[in-house]
Amino acid sequence: MAPARVYLDNAATSWPKPEAVYRAVDDYQRRLGAPAGRSSYAEAAQTERIVAACRQKVARLIAAADPKRIVFTLNGSDSLNMALHGLLQPGDHVVTSVCEHNSVLRPLRFLAEHRGVATAYVPCDAAGIVDPDEVRRAITRQTKLVAILHASNVTGSIQPIAEIGQIAKQHGASLLVDAAQSLGYLPIDVNELGCDLLAAPGHKGLLGPLGTGVLYLSPGIEQRLLPLRQGGTGTRSDEDVQPSSLPDRYESGNLNVPGIVGLEAGVTHLLDAGIDRCREHQSQLTARLLDGLAGLPAVTLYGSRNLAERVGVVSLNVAGYDPRELASLLDAQWSIQTRAGIHCAPRMHQALGTVPAGTLRLSIGHFTTEAEIDAAIAALSEL
Ligand SMILES: Cc1ncc(COP(=O)(O)O)c(C=O)c1O
Questions:
Q1: Residue 134: predicted pLDDT
Q2: Radius of gyration of the chain (CA)
């Protein structure tokens, strides 16, 4: 019999999902099958209620006062593109960090080439953490935005977002937080973080299906954030101008309702479980993994060893192995599923000195068990 699948690629997308997520998607597809916010028969009204409940629960999870300020998107990259392309104009300056994912780096590169937007990249320390003073130093009078990720998808390190947010505010810049690796795993209060925009996928820590994402908009930002798309919203259909009301201003065309009903079930699971318990579970398993690996002399670990400064994304290298070779061996011999390479974060790997091969990444999810962590440690020990 093939060994059970040990899924340690939760930073890419979480798996498995709670049973309720599978059931919600199946029930919607078979029984409701209606669009949201457009029609008035019973199934359409029920669909609209589930979508509204999802908005409300995501808002509750991040302490956003108004659910209308949660916009549904396609994924984390879509949320980030909506924020960056919608906000930045020719001549604007952005401060970001070397830790960012290509979902921030590539839109900024595009905006530099096509819209004359300038970007400063602040460095990080050896653990992958940005010093807020570096952000302060990089800000100029033209700085419109500080764009920074909450937790790294390479090192797992958590950035001092609240301090960075205060600095941005002092200088009149907006703050965009990429919460792809933190939302669902860390308690998040958008007011405490001081963020104007928070972007995240729905399919990682929030436990929704692929094809879901969210963008939080702070009060007033909609006056400066242009929508990327225009189209049908089911509201003000007699006018050919995009409505200015939220969330319609940013949600054109039919929503990914099969995804959103699953996301609703995923977020309900998290709220019921309690985000502090989810954080505790991830931290305990991260400690177990780091302790187990620290005893292996051939293993180099990246990121902070302080659990308060990290999430459950663990990058490593093993002397004498290419990370891709390691990932293949782990999968072929032990069914341990990881990810190798640059993880869409080229500047982060330059900073860590891990180019061109990158690292092997093991990422812990809500359903990862101690036995799975022990299996990974045992396999790496054997190698
Ligand atoms: C830090 C970070 N930002 C953005 C993204 C993009 O998310 P998505 O794959 O949903 O577009 C990811 C995904 O891996 C990520 O890790």
A1: 98
A2: 21
CA–CA dist 308, 333 (Å, integer): 34
Helix, coil or strand: residue 326: helix
The residue whose CA is least distant from atom 9 of ligand 1 is 76
Q: Is 227 helix (H, G, I), strand (E, B) or coil?
A: coil
Q: Specify the DSSP element, H or E, that contains 103.
A: helix 102-115
Strands (E), 248-335: 299-301, 313-318
pLDDT at 47 over 60: yes
Q: In what order do the strands lie in the sheet with 339-341?
A: 299-301, 313-318, 359-363, 339-341
The rounded Å distance from CA 103 to ligand 1 centre is 7
The residue nearest atom 7 of ligand 1, judged by CA position, is: 76
Of 288, 321, 345, the C-alpha closest to 8 is: 288
Torsion, CA 89, CA 95, CA 99, CA 100, rounded to 10: -10
pTM of the model: 0.98
Q: How far is the CA of 52 from the centre of ligand 1 (A)?
A: 25
**Annotated catalytic residue 344:** yes
The Cα–Cα gap between 246 and 251 comes to 9
Distance 36 CA to ligand 1 centre (A): 26
What are the structure tokens assigned to 332, written together? Answer: 């072929």
**Is pLDDT at 1 greater than 60 in this prediction?**
no
CATH code for the structural domain at 19-273: 3.40.640.10
> What's the pLDDT score for residue 2?
56
User: CATH for 6-17+274-382, among 3.40.50.12280, 3.10.450.50, 3.90.1150.10, 3.40.640.10?
Assistant: 3.90.1150.10
Sequence ranges of the domains in the chain = 6-17+274-382, 19-273
pLDDT tens digit string along 85-133? Answer: 999 999 999 999 999 999 999 999 999 999 999 999 999 999 999 999 9
